[in-house]
Amino acid sequence: MTPTAPVTIEADTTMRSAHTNPVYEKLVLGYFLASLGFALAGMLAGMFYSLQFLQIYPFTGIELFSPGRWRIVHTTIVTYGFIGNACLGALHWIVPRLTGRPILTNARSLVLMMAWQLILLATVAGVILGQTRAVPWGEAPPWIAPFITLTLAMISAGLFIPFFKTQRPRPIALWYFAIPLIALAPTHAIGSFLPQHFASNTATGITGLGHMVSLFVMPLGYGFLYEFVPLATQRPIWSPALARAGWLAAALSFPIHTVCVFLCDQGTLPPSLAEAIPTLWTVGTAVTVIINVFATAINQRGIHPAHPAMRWFLLGTLLYFVGCVQNVFGLASSLYSAASSYDWASSDWTIAHSHLIAFGAFGFWLFGIMTYLLPKLLGATKWYRTSWNVWHFRLTGIGLLIMFVDLAAAGVVQQHLWHSLTPWEQSLAASVPFWVVRATIGFVMIAGHMVLICHIAMTTIHGKKARTPEAETPDTPAAKSESLLVAGILILAVSLATVGFMRWNSVATRHDKTLMDLAHEGVTHEFIELAERFPNQFYEYYPNGPTIESFASALALGRATFEAEACWHCHTQRVRAVSQDIARWGPATRADEYQNVLQRRASLPTRRIGPDLSKEAGRRSNDWHLAHFFKPTDVVPTSVMPAYPWFFDEDDYPNRRGLAVITYMQWLGSTHPESSDNHGEGPHEPAATTVGHGTQH
Known about the structure:
This protein has 697 residues and is mostly helical. Among the domains are: 16-170, Four Helix Bundle (Hemerythrin (Met), subunit A), CATH 1.20.120; 514-676, Cytochrome Bc1 Complex, Chain D, domain 2. The chain has 21 helices and two strands. The chain has helices spanning 22-51, 67-99, 106-128, 145-165, 172-193, 212-233, 240-265, 271-297, 309-335, 337-340, 348-377, 386-419, 424-462, 483-509, 515-520, 525-533, 535-541, 548-564, 579-585, 622-630, 656-667, and strands at 298-299, 302-303. Strands 1-2 form a two-stranded antiparallel sheet. α5 (172-193) packs parallel to α7 (240-265), α7 (240-265) runs antiparallel to α8 (271-297) and α12 packs antiparallel against α13 (424-462). The termini are far apart.
């Protein structure tokens, strides 16, 4: 890229000239097939996980099939396996054709593709074995994180070098691709190696892996639309100027968020505005793309797709618009939440939104790309049966829409019950009908995916083989000057470097309480009681008894167990500053509560299925927790929490992990005076609850 020499073009369009290399075709096909395989596995994992909410999980009592672990398997292989592989495949098809330059060498490209699949499989294996972390988007075991960052850096470099070296005018799709190619590896590194922390009572203090959505997923999606919508409609994009304005807004989204976080931490900007400004900015960016896509698709007959892929692009864009409306609604509600006590982020409303955006919008765009490219990659002129494309679209689209409406309605019901301070177990019972629909509709979506897989096989076997390459179609006009592109990239790069330095400096200079510091604050009486109740087990694991050292060791293992079983997906450790939270669980969480080694990587869940645990200490007895872990429905009949028999020995007494996780539960909030007050409506413990053979003497 040469900032001192603006690029001009004589014609109003630039013709795509492919960098011909059959190895890239195989590479793209390999990424797509891996993507579809991981998508099927992710759907199955998600469906089985959803059965836990109905108390009919088929693998109950089997540690390696713990629902919490498979919930992480579901999200990992959907995001990194399905979405990640499909994105890499599409990029390896587009970049050489728009730049006219190769991507690394054939051998290196194939090695990186295989390395990425091995990393995904290793991540899944590590998660199943209980080596996960409580880091959204970064649940991978700690030992695999460096390999993920390195592989992403090498893949990004291979894709960015042609972008940098090309002498051609760069169409707008390449502009959008520049954002994720620059930001992907640094963002993953910041989120993985500089643990996120709780900076305020808003989410604005959380940076790192969470920004992969704004810095990777969405810019890629916009770039894909600006490349494939003109191909599928055989028309240039409606407004190149609007597309470039949207690109600048996307490039500035992370810097603006960074500035808002800084001003919020300095007390200059109210937390509500620190959340509202980036959200509205992101929605405004999305609007530019939504307008351009639908305006391009409109012709003399209205919106009439010229290619089957356009169904996916249009429906995905429509769902993305719905997601933007949902974002604005949630923002308006959060600004009013202190008075209304509504907290949409903690309910199934959030799950509805994540499925809508990740699978409904971005996933549908990727299905559109594969619908357009797969026959070409398979050497066919077209798909085997047009009707099979329609069935895949209908089953997947109808299934996703029903799931979204169902989960959104569940969120509304949950919020109403929480707002009225209904006992927590009643909100679980009220959610069950919605969870039944969610689990059932999963079969419909899996059926649609199976149609696609069968269609690929039939097209490979019976599809009419192509004899000559298709004629290329014109791209979106390139800009006469790339100064805007250069400025946006520089601002983004400086912002990433600044955030990385600030996070590194924060980690290097802060003085969090160590395990021994926490233990010296006082061994909890619940830990001592465990030693008295179960002396045989306790002294087997802690020969010196309930000392400061053994207490610290139990806390560390308890936190690790809490992460490994993904308890943090359903239990928050953060009381939000809304009235219903405060009424149930006590004063809102403060930033200084997280300045210790056990909570500096804050446990921020997807939603609340179980009560908040930030002030759990002393609310319930050790016996209650033992019974609850052994068989949750014995103490809370409506509970959807799985049993953890592997926390107990063959005689049903607590083993090392059982003692440790209860110690951790009874420590949470124990250093705060209000922790001993029972603020919540939580389940009442039974008068006489015993585990195993009772007290040992």
